[in-house]
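hey can u check if this looks right to u? its 397 residues, i copy pasted from the old doc so theres a chance i mangled smth
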Amino acid sequence: MPAAHFFAQEPAAAGLDPAKVQALFDRAQREVAEGLLPSCQIAIARKGKIGAMRTFGRAVHGGVEKPATDQTLYVIFSCTKAIMASAAWLLIDEGKLDPARRVVDYIPEFGTNGKEVVTVEQLLIHTAGFPDAPYAQSDWLDRAKRLKCFTNWRLQWEPGSKYTYHPTSSFWVIAEIVERQSGIDFREFVRRRIARPLGLPDLRVGIPRDQSTRVADLVYVGEALKPEDYAKLGFPVPPETEVNETAILGFNLPSVREAGVPGGGAVTTAADMALFYQALLTGRAHDGTRIWSEEVLRDVMRVRTEGYVDPVFGQPPNRGLGVVIAGDDGKANLRGFGKTNSPTTFGHGGAGGQLAWGDPATGISIGYCTNGFDRNDIRQGRRGVALSSLAASCGAP
């Protein structure tokens, strides 16, 4: 939980409309009150401060069910990608990493089975060609097995030839590059170079086991849609990936939480996420210390996936280096944003409906977490669009 000085006394002090913020919170609470979601946590920030934060519902922490609070931690899944990408951005800033270079220039062991042509940029924009490469949760804490996976992994298609979302594989490679170029374990790098300078003690990729009882256990809720339901709604049936119920519920294990899978294993609060994006909007910590240069932030936020099509949604994926850009084509809601976000809004959502983004046009950022994994992914997606749309409109007149 961030220190008290990160919180405005009231929404208006952070340039937020109190009535609109209340409407946002009412929407967040709705499905908890209806009994669909066990708990959720939401925070909205502007002008470098949390304007307001709320936590609703109950959750199991360390085997005990109790009310969720603002201190409760949540697994944020693929929202983690923006955090790990921002670690890579620091190395780019320092001249220690070039996105245009091949991965084998940093990790020679990776160059097997045709993977020697994969570039760092392709890892970050999901065009690397090995989205389903296997790496068992039980092995995530074993670096030797990580490197063995790199050697064994095979391409599913030619790198750069198409876009397909890589749930975890490519970001394991990013984590290894961070370790080799910094000399620090990737989890500690995030703590030392990002979380601590930003004053965000609960922003973690990998949480120590002795703090695991603070994390809300994940539960599945709702009923899955059938193929005919998708057809009726005009949506394709989502492809099967490693993101399944067994894998998701594995994040209730302290060992999996400790591993901090770099593509989806960060554990934090909604407030820490909202403040992380406040820092990305300016490149600076709360005290004015520059963390990322303006030049690097401009470069990593530009869309690098022109000409590619997301096979699930049939539209351009609008990927920067590790983040998604809302865009001005009217499809931002299908990229994890709302209908009122500006085209320059950037962020990365997470499985189960986690939300995290910053909007340069308004200066608003948001973090939303839930431990209720809705099997109805259309309902889950609409919830995210509603929350983001409300949040993006919360600026005071």
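The longest helix spans residues 18-33.
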